[in-house]
Design goal:
single chain, mainly alpha, 2 domains
Amino acid sequence: MSYTFFDLLQLIGALGIFIFGMKIFSEGLQNIAGSRLKGILSGMTRNRLTGVLTGFATTAITQSSTTTTVMAVSFVNAGLLTFMQSTGVIMGANIGTTITAWIVALFGFKMKITPIAIAMIGIFFVFLFSKNSRWRNIAETMVGFGILFIGLEFIKTGVPDIRSNPEILSFLDMFTGYGYMSLVLFVVIGTVLTLIMQSSSAASAVTLVMLFEGWISFPLAAAMVLGENIGTTVTANLAAMVGNVHAKRAARFHFLFNIIGVTWMMLSIYFVLDAIDWVVQTFTNSPLSVMSDDPAARPNATLALSLFHTTFNVLNVIILFAFVPQLVRLVEYLQPDNNKNEDTFHLRYISAGVMTSPNLSIAQAQKEIQHFADIIDKMHSAVYELLFEPKPAREKLMEGIQNYERLTDQLEIEISDYLVSISERTHLEHDLTERMRCMQTMINDMERIADIYFQISKLLERMQETKSPWPDAAINELEHMMKAVQKAISNMLLNVSMEPDDVDLDHAIVLEDEIDELREKYRNNHYTRLESSDYSPRAGVSYIDVLNRLERIGDHILNVNESAAGRRLKAMRIIGMSQQ
């Protein structure tokens, strides 16, 4: 055998170039699409049919079914899609992923595209340094496209020639002489190959090369393609492991949908292969005759394999489309909702790691920040109840506030880590960088609000122990102050869910000014009460402490609103007044 270990390393390197080119190509396409990807997924899923079209279009744009399915799982986890809506997206992604195989089969085997690919890199690489982000993204896409086909050419030249290395064919014969069981074995091989490469597109390219070089027959290549359809579901299932129950169900549906499809296809594979053979023979040589002794038919066999891949996925969607409700019920049975405490100390929405598109990653982070704001609202309600409602469950309220404070500490760390990982893994434009900095400021301010509420609860606990009550006038003032803060929190909840340009800062400033005015008014009343001995100095100190802390909460709420808008409007107003 003339194939050496160094030759094997070259083949592995060629495969690496192909995967790297596919990665750059896919990321470039996603960056060109930008925030439109979110709109495609969330705006075109009114029913299962439009969901299928959405999944197909998104996969065609991203050139990665894995990206689409992980995106769908993430959006289900974030509440941007329902589980039922995601089923259509996942089915459409299965069809969309076949486009990659067609591109590779048409350009990589039917024509000499390597010189064109190199020329394409030569034309576009200079635009990689352009200040215009759109041109830079287009250049990245075209350079990735060129690297992809250069890698494919290296793979074709790097695989050992069977004529010079007959031992390889002898080795493969060990697995091809078992009839139908050989097909089952190659389904497993295709699954494992996809798991190792973490890319069904790369696994498909390897399968096409093996078929083109005559290593395996057309039926075995078809079996490998079926295995790759199973392997591609694993990434989404891994992404859903830390997600909520809806994300897990979306990932399980993808796995179940593909498993059922592969099962029925394996039961009818000989009939389908004969049908593909009949269609292809209408135009060219039979793909079933493709082995090492028929090199002229090999390019046509790669097209036939792409046709088989597309036919399988289209038929699978058509056959199972009507049974989606039953599949959904089965998935819900297999993945029940255990109704766990919603305040578990981990991220609720960011479950799939950093998305390839920075816009989508930031959308995920914004959803998590909305969750953070919801917790602040719950803490306010708990403290309000602790202050003014009957106290039979005081101990439970105190424990709940403490749990909320621990949760906000953890959320601040995890969201901050996620935002940092976005900047580390992707190239960000200036406006996205600024928005991420504002998000960091938002979570810092909200964590400070949670700390202040916890401090107020501890102060109230000490008051209970020392039996230092407030007079009715003081209690009424604090109730008005708490209601003013509640209005500010409700406005903050609205603003953190908006895009920066839609945030109304003027209203936020009005609400914060109201809190400031109440603090000044009630502080004067406090000193009057002290002078009149309406309450003890200890109770007075506690009152003014709570009043000041509530005013600081108002300041932090305004900071959050300003960060949500991406500008410091009140600070700018104060500077402007000082310059007059």
